[in-house]
Amino acid sequence: MRLARPLAVLALLVSPTILHAQISQEERDADWLERCRRDGMSSDARGRACEVRAVPVKLSGRSIAIDGERNGGIRVIGWAGDSVKVTARIQAQARTDAIAQSMLPNIRVVADGRSVRSEGPSTNYDDEAGWSVSYVVYVPRRFDLDLEAHNGSLGVSGVSGKLDLRTVNGSQDGVPDLLPLSLQPGDRVLLASDGLTDLVEESVIAETLASRADDDAVPALVAAALARGGRDNITCALASVVDGPQISSDGMLLGAVRDPGNVVDLAAVRSVSA
Fold first, then answer.
1. Structural domain for 4, as ranges
2. 3-state secondary structure of 102
3. Pick from 88, 106, 128, 207: CA 20 to 30 A from residue 64's CA?
4. Pairing of strands 63-70, 144-150
5. CB 154 within 8 A of CB 3
6. Which residues contact 4 (CB under 8 A, 6 or more apart)?
7. Is residue 198 part of a domain?
8. Are residues 163 and 47 in the same domain?
9. Domain check: are 7 and 89 in the same one?
């Protein structure tokens, strides 16, 4: 399964609005260590060993790639700091606790200027041996991520940028960032990728929205990003709040979708395409 979140969200109600990401409370390392030693990776009776390591990272840019390898999950949280903090949570299982403990020194977490990954022993300790490394990572709120996990979950909260998330037999358990807006008729909301927001200042975006009609504002914003280099995908969607009938609790169709002629029959499209 491939999960991607390429869009950064910028809400502008004539004047710029600063987005504040809420950081969820994480399980403390000490609590995880106690739970790991008590419960292990599963409910079986195999021996186990657990360890928490701080991983020193010195990145060459504002992006990081992390490979969770086998059974490793990755949790990334955006924070107010300008540095990157990586903690590795290591688990080993084997026939006995002693064998599992002997595996830990041979599990390495390797960090270079762009990525973090783990290397470890083969399972020839015994037929029941296994190990995994999960990561808890704090990054600046504007950061690019490239995450991959196998049989492990991925979670991202409070981060905007280029997010490439891939998991095999895992799940995405991130908490979405929610920004409540009190909107009135005449307000406008812009959804845009970082191809726009990285290059065009918020003051310029706000002035463009305030001075141009909907049909003119989006082309003008794209043109502004292209004029500044246009080095990335530039996506803009502009919504204007208008007066309209109150929607009942049962819901109702409004606008163009009320005309059956505008409704696309997906089954027919697939049939023609085939």
1. 1-19+179-242
2. helix
3. 106
4. parallel
5. yes
6. 163, 164, 165
7. yes
8. yes
9. no
Alpha helices by DSSP H, 4-84: 29-39
Are residues 13 and 52 both part of a single domain? no
pLDDT digits (tens), the chain, 274 positions: 333 333 333 333 332 222 233 333 457 888 888 888 887 555 567 888 999 999 999 888 889 999 887 788 899 999 888 899 999 999 998 888 998 999 999 999 999 888 999 998 876 656 678 899 999 999 998 899 988 888 788 888 888 888 888 877 666 555 555 667 788 888 888 888 778 887 899 899 999 998 998 889 999 999 999 998 887 778 888 888 888 766 555 556 666 656 666 555 545 544 444 4
Our count of domains for the chain comes to 2
The reply to whether 30 and 144 lie within a common domain is yes
Q: Is residue 155 part of a domain?
A: yes
**C-alpha Rg value of the chain to the nearest Å:** 24
Residue 33 and residue 51: Cα distance in Å, rounded?
7
Q: Is residue 126 part of a domain?
A: yes
> What whole-number distance in Å separates Cα of residue 11 and Cα of residue 192?
9
- E strands present in the chain: 2-5, 12-13, 15-16, 47-55, 63-70, 74-79, 85-94, 108-111, 115-119, 130-140, 144-150, 154-157, 163-168, 188-192, 236-240
**What's the half-sphere exposure (Cβ side, CA atoms, 13 Å) at 205?**
27
Q: Tell me: do 80 and 5 sit in the same domain.
A: no
Give the CATH number, domain containing residue 217. 3.60.40.10
Within a domain: 232: yes
What's the rounded Cα separation, in Å, for the pair 72 and 69?
A: 6
